[in-house]
Design goal:
Elements (H helix, E strand, L loop, with lengths): L4 E3 L23 E3 L11 H29 L12 E2 L10 E7 L5 E7 L6 E9 L2 E2 L3 E2 L8 E6 L5 E6 L13 E6 L10 E2 L10 E6 L5 E5 L9 E5 L1 E2 L2 E2 L3 E2 L9 E7 L5 E7 L8 E9 L2 E2 L3 E2 L10 E6 L5 E6 L14 H8 L8 E6 L9
Antiparallel strand pairs: 1-2, 3-26, 4-5, 5-6, 6-7, 6-8, 9-10, 10-11, 11-12, 13-14, 14-15, 15-18, 16-17, 19-20, 20-21, 21-22, 21-23, 24-25, 25-26
C-alpha cells in the first residue's frame, strides 16, 4: 500500500491523472498520495497536522486549477449565451481579437477574414485552411500585413479576392482613404500582386466592403457625398471585362442612416446590408435584407433577432452556394459572477477569450431566418 492514492470523497484507491508536479505528494484532484500504510497514518499529532495541511493545500490547488481550466477551455458557447448562430472555430479563428468580414471558398476549405486592432486603426487579412474537418491556426495572407487591409470578399468561384486598403497607389505614400483592390489566383493557386480598381470605382473618399456576384457585378459602400447618409451602398455593373460607373442604389437600400457593410448573394438576387443606429432596430448595428423582384430591389428590412442582438452585428457575406450567411457579432458573455468572486487570473482568461465583447465570426443557414415571412 506504499504510495497509494486515496480519494478524499469516496475513500477509494486511485493512482492516475495527477494534478500538478510529479513528486511524492502529487495527486489527482480530491486525492492524497501517501507514503505510509493507512494503518499508521495520523497516529501522532504532528502527522495529523501534516495530513490536514496537505489535504487543505491539495483541495485549494485543485479547485483553483479546475476554475481556470473551465474558463480557458469551455468553449461550448451554447452553455454561455443563448444564440442560435454558430461561432466559426472558437479559439482558433474566432478569438479574443476583433474578427470580421469572413468569406469562404466554394469547397469550404479556406476562409478569409479581417483582424482589427482594438482601436480599428489597423486591420489585416488572415486565412485559415480546413484540414480533415478542423480549422488550422490562421496565417496572414501573402498579399497583406504591411498596410491596413480589410473587408475581404471572395468571388463566388473563389478565383478573385476583393478587399479595401489604404496601401499606396503609385509611390510609397500611404493613401489618405481606403480604396478597393483585388488579387487573383495564378496557375499555382497563389495570389497575385494586388491590383487597384479603376478611378471609376475609387475616389478620394472611402470605398469599403466590396462584394461580387457570379456575373462579377460589384456592390460596395462609400462615404462619398450623396443624397442619403454618411455611408451608402453603390452598384457597379461588370460588362465587357471592366466595371462601369457606379450607381447609388435608391431608398429601397439606402437611407439617412449609415449603410456600412454589404454582401450580395452569388445569383445577385439577395442583398444583406449592415445599418447603423437605426431607430427600432435591435442593437447599434443590425443586418437588413432586400430581395430583387422583377429587376428591382425590395425595401430593405431587418432580418430579425435570430441574428441581430442588443449590440453590434455586421459584415454580412453569403456563401458561394447561397445557403449560408456569415457575419460578425459583438455579443458577449454576462460578466456578472454572483456565485463566485473573480481572481485576477480568471478575469484575464475571460478577457482573452471569445465572447469578450469584441467581434467574433458566426454563420447560420439562411433558410432558418425565414426571410420571406419577416
Amino acid at each position: 500500500m506504499i504510495g497509494a492514492g486515496i480519494n478524499l470523497f469516496t475513500g477509494k484507491e486511485i493512482d492516475k491523472k495527477y494534478c500538478g508536479q510529479q513528486n511524492l505528494y502529487a495527486m489527482p484532484c480530491g486525492t492524497l498520495r501517501i507514503a505510509k500504510p493507512l494503518a499508521v497514518i495520523g497516529q501522532t499529532k504532528m502527522e495529523k497536522k501534516i495530513i490536514l495541511l496537505l489535504i487543505t493545500l491539495t483541495l485549494t490547488s485543485c479547485l483553483q486549477k479546475t476554475e481556470r481550466t473551465s474558463v480557458k477551455e469551455n468553449l461550448n458557447l451554447h452553455e454561455i449565451i443563448e444564440y442560435e448562430p454558430e461561432m466559426l472555430a472558437p479559439g482558433v479563428i474566432s478569438k479574443a481579437s476583433f474578427e470580421g468580414h469572413a468569406s469562404i471558398t466554394p469547397d469550404g476549405k479556406e476562409v478569409y477574414f479581417a483582424v482589427y486592432s482594438n482601436d480599428h486603426g489597423f486591420s489585416t487579412i488572415a486565412y485559415s485552411v480546413n484540414t480533415n474537418g478542423e480549422w488550422m491556426p490562421p496565417k496572414i495572407a501573402n498579399f497583406s500585413g504591411n498596410y491596413s487591409d480589410g473587408s475581404p470578399a471572395l468571388s463566388p468561384d473563389g478565383k478573385k479576392l476583393f478587399f479595401s486598403s489604404n496601401r499606396p497607389i503609385k509611390d510609397s505614400t500611404i493613401n489618405s482613404s481606403n480604396d478597393i483592390w483585388f488579387v487573383e489566383r495564378n496557375s499555382t493557386n497563389k495570389w497575385s500582386r494586388p491590383v487597384r480598381l479603376s478611378d471609376s470605382i475609387n475616389t478620394s473618399f472611402n470605398e469599403f466592403s466590396p462584394s461580387v456576384d457570379r456575373s462579377g457585378n460589384l456592390y460596395f459602400c462609400s462615404n462619398r457625398p450623396s443624397i442619403y447618409g454618411d455611408m451608402d451602398v453603390y452598384f457597379a455593373p461588370y460588362s465587357k471585362g471592366k466595371y462601369q460607373k457606379p450607381v447609388l442604389l435608391n431608398d429601397s437600400i439606402n437611407s439617412k442612416y449609415h449603410e456600412g457593410n454589404v454582401g450580395v448573394s452569388p445569383d445577385g438576387n439577395q442583398l444583406f446590408i449592415m445599418v447603423q443606429h437605426k431607430p427600432d432596430d435591435f442593437g447599434y448595428d443590425d443586418i437588413h435584407y432586400s430581395e430583387k423582384i422583377d429587376g428591382l430591389w425590395s425595401k430593405a428590412k431587418n432580418i430579425g433577432k435570430i441574428v441581430n442582438t442588443y449590440t453590434y452585428d455586421f459584415s454580412p457575406k453569403v456563401s458561394p452556394n447561397g445557403k449560408t450567411l456569415y457575419f460578425s457579432s459583438r455579443i458577449n458573455r454576462n460578466f456578472n459572477s454572483p456565485s463566485s468572486k473573480y481572481t485576477y487570473e480568471v478575469f484575464q482568461d475571460y478577457l482573452n477569450s471569445p465572447l469578450n465583447g469584441f467581434g467574433n465570426i458566426y454563420h447560420i443557414e439562411i433558410d432558418k431566418l425565414n426571410l420571406k415571412q419577416n
